[in-house]
Amino acid sequence: MDIFLGVLFLIICLLLIVVILLQKGRGGGLSAAFGGMGTSAFGTKTGDVFTWVTIVLTALFLLLAVGSTLAFRPRRGTVAAPVFQPPPGAISEEKRVSIFCATLGATIRYTINGTDPDEHAAAYEKPVRVEPGTILKARAYRTNWQASEVTTGAYPKAKPTQLPELGPQPGFPVAPTTTAPAAPPIPASAPATAPAPAGR
Questions:
Q1: Count of domains in the chain?
Q2: How many angstroms separate the CA atoms of 140 and 136, rounded?
Q3: On the chain, which terminus has fewer CB atoms closer than 10 Å, C or N?
Q4: Between these two residues, 69 and 36, which has the higher pLDDT value?
Q5: Residues 140, 150: Cα–Cα separation, whole Å
Q6: Residues near 157 by beta carbon (within 8 Å), at least 6 away in sequence
Q7: Residue 34 sits in which domain range?
Q8: Which helix (H) or strand (E) is 134 found in, with range?
Q9: Which helix (H) or strand (E) holds 185?
């Protein structure tokens, strides 16, 4: 379509140049160089015919000029997506998140309620206060550029840290627990002195 529009615009330009040169001016125009060919070709009303042809070609020239300007203008760039620092992740307390954009001159818009930011959202000026459980979204804008994609960062509440229970480690054999046998009861001690023998 762009090629067709360009070729048509070039043809209209050439036709307009030829018609203007063929018109009779003070010097007789280009037709005078060919012995009045223009007058004999269109009869006595050559001037009127060339006038209307010139008007039509001029109107087409203007329309095609506007259309070619819109069709062949440089395409706008796309703004780079914003980046969060610190990156999204679980947090246990309030954090201040900075938002960066690699495109110079871009304006960053952000929300903290989970909705996609638009051109009317809050503008980023300083680090955003983010509490645990917040969903931060940002989009960058620049005049005459395509808006960036929405960057989403979730900062859920971190779970409390629990100490691991001590127990057998995997991969290491556990020695069996053995119980020493109970010692036999100690008999009562013998009397200190033997009984005296019976009297004779």
A1: 2
A2: 14
A3: C
A4: 69
A5: 8
A6: 90, 91, 92, 132, 133
A7: 2-72
A8: strand 134-141
A9: none
